[in-house]
C-alpha cells in the first residue's frame, strides 16, 4: 500500500511539473524576476558610477541583499512578481483535481489505489508545483544579481537602504548571516506559494468553474491585503502575504507569529477540506 | 437567429452567471466607502467638526489611484490595492461568460446565428453592458452609503481631501468642474476598453492568461506614469485637472477609442477564422 | 473465484432513489448483462460495484469483504464507465503507463500488447489523447479496463462510437475475458450483443430489478 502511494505521488508530481501550464507560468514568473534583475543590476552600476565621481562611495549601502528581487521594492519586476504571486502559484496545477473530476479520470485512478492516497498525492503535487513555480524564479534572480552585485553584509548604518526593522522576522540573521536569511525566505516563499496553490484544490470542492477556482485565491489574498487599510495607524505588523513574503519590509515589519498563524490556518483549511471532503465525496 | 434575440439570450445568460459578482461588488464598494469615512475621521480627529465628504468625494477616493512613482531605494512602490482590486474584479467578472458560451450550449446558439460576427458583436455589447451595470452598482452603492451616513449628495469636490487623503503631488490651486466628468467617465471608459481587449485576447491566450495580460497592463500603468499605458487614465489623481503635468483628457479619449477599435476590429477578424473546438 | 454479492442495496442521491432494493450475486467466469432504458440505474449499479459510491442501505460484498467497510475498492478491478477518461496532454501509451504504474503489475510490453489487442496501431500509441477520434478514445478506455487482467471487469456501453469491426473486436475481447475467468459486468443498449454475450441479464427499471434472464430462461 505504501508503495502504491509513492508511485501515485511520483506520477502526480510528474504530471504537475511536466505540463505546459507549469512551463508557461514558470516562463512568465521568470520573466518578471529577470526584469527586476536587469533593472537592479543597471541601477547598481549607475549608483557605483555616481559614487565614483564624487563624495562618500557608501560601499556598504548597496549589496546583493538589497538588489535581488526579495530585497528591493522599487522595480516593475518586483511589483509584478509579488502582486501576482498568489495567482502565479495556482496556475500550474491548482486546477488539476477539478479537471480530473469533471472528465471522470479520478475514478480510473482511485480504483487502483484509494481516495485517501489520491487526495494526499494530489495535495502534495499541487503544493510542490505551486512552490517551485515561485522558488525557481527567485533563485534565478538571486544568482543572476549575485553575478553582478557583491554580497556585502548589510549594515544598520544605512537603515533606509536595508529596511529590515528591529523585531522583524529573522532580522538578526539579516545583519549577521544574510545568506541564511535569504535561504529561509526562499523556503518561506516556497511554503506559502504551495499553500496558495492548494487553496484552489480546496476551492474545487465548492465551485464548478475553472476560472473561479483559479482566481479565487488571488482575490482572497488581495482582499486580505486591502483589509490592512483598516489597521492603519493602529497596528504596525504586516498581515498581508504579498508584503511579508518579500524579504525586506515593504510597508510594515514581518511578524513571526502572524506568519506562522496564517500559514497554519491556510494549511489546516486547505489540507482539512481536501482530505475530509475528498475522501468523503462520492465519485459520480 | 436574429441579432436582438441573440442579444437577449446573452443578457439573460450572461447576467445570470454574473449576478453574484454584482453583489460582491456592492460589498467591495461599501468597504471602500467605510475606508474613506474612517480615514477622514482619523485625519481630522483634532478638528472641531469632521468635514463632510460629498458623493463625488467618495467616488474620487475609489477611482483615485496613486500619484506618479519615482523609483528609489528610499521609497518603496506600494500597490494601489483598492483601485486594483476594483478594476481586476470587474475584468474577472466579464472573463467567464463569453468563453463558456463557446462550448456546450453556446455552440448550438453559434450555429444558429446568421454569421460569426453577429455572435461576436452580441458578446461585445453584452460585455459593455455588464461593465456599465457594474459601474451603476458602484454609483448606487456610494449613493446609498452617503444617504445612510448623511453625507451630502453633491458633485462638489472637496480640495482638502484631495491634498490630505489622496496626496496627488503637484495639485492645482483650484479644481475645475471638468474633474467631475473625469471622475464619472474616464475610469468607466478605460474599464470598457480593457474588458473588450481582454475578451479579444481570450481568443488567442485562453481566459486565464488573458486575465494575466490585462492584470499586467493595470499594474504596469500604476507603476509607470505614461500616456501610453491605459490604466493611467483610470487613475483620476493623474489627470491634468488634478496635477500640473497630468494626463490630458483628450489623449485618454484617444486611448479609449484606439483600444475599443483595435479590440473590435481585431476580434472580428480573428473570430471569423477562429477554430471553435468547444474546449472549456 | 471472485464473487460480488449485492444484498438489498438501495442508493438515494439528492432525495431520489437511483437504486432500489437490488439483490444480485455475480461470479467469475460469467458475463453479467445489465439492461434498461436511460436513467434506469445501470451505471449507478456499476458505480456501486466499483465502490465509487456507497449504498444508502444494504451491502455489497466482494469475496465476502464488505465494500466501504472492510475494503474501499475491489482489489482487482478494471472499469470503463460512461465515457473513457484520460489526460489530454499525454499519448495513449503514456496514459495507460501512468495508470499501470500505480499498481506496477504490468510492463510496457504488456501495455503495448493490450493497445494492439483493442485495435490501436503503433502510430496511435504515440498520438496525444486529445487528437484521438471518439472510436480511438473508446478503444483506449477498454484497454485501460482490461490491461492488468483484473478479476472484475466493468464495461458500461463499451461499443459506443465504434464501427462494425470495432464492435466485433469488443465482443471478442469480452469472450476472452470470460475465458480467462474474469467476472465481467456489461451494460449495453444493443440487445443482440447482450443476448449473445451475457450469461445472465438483469433488467432494471427506475432503479429496481424487474426481471432476470439466464441464457434464454426468464425469471
TrEMBL record, chain A:
Q: Where are the transmembrane segments?
A: 21-41, 73-99, 120-153, 173-199, 211-236, 256-279
Q: Determine the domain of life of the protein's source.
A: Bacteria
Record's keyword terms, sorted: Membrane, Transmembrane, Transmembrane helix
Name the record gives this protein:
Uncharacterized protein
TrEMBL record, chain B:
Superkingdom of the source species: Bacteria
Record has Transmembrane helix as a keyword: yes
- Say which species the protein is native to: Natronobacillus azotifigens
Name this protein carries in UniProt? Uncharacterized protein
Q: Could you tell me the keywords of this UniProt record? A: Membrane, Transmembrane, Transmembrane helix
Residue intervals passing through the bilayer: 20-38, 77-99, 120-145, 175-196, 208-229, 249-271
TrEMBL record, chain C:
**Mind telling me which InterPro entries this protein's record contains?**
AAA+_ATPase, ABC_transporter-like_ATP-bd, ABC_transporter-like_CS, ABC_Transporter_VariousFunc, P-loop_NTPase
Identify the stretch annotated as signal peptide in this record: none
Q: Under the GO molecular function aspect, what terms does this record hold?
A: ATP binding; ATP hydrolysis activity
Show where the ABC transporter domain sits: 4-219
Q: Which UniProt keywords apply?
A: ATP-binding, Nucleotide-binding, Transport
Q: Which Pfam families match?
A: ABC_tran
Asked whether the keyword ATP-binding is assigned, the reply is yes
Q: What SMART domains does this protein's entry cite?
A: AAA (SM00382)
Spell out the protein name for this chain: ABC transporter ATP-binding protein
What is the species listed in this Swiss-Prot or TrEMBL entry? Natronobacillus azotifigens
> Lineage in the entry?
Bacteria, Bacillati, Bacillota, Bacilli, Bacillales
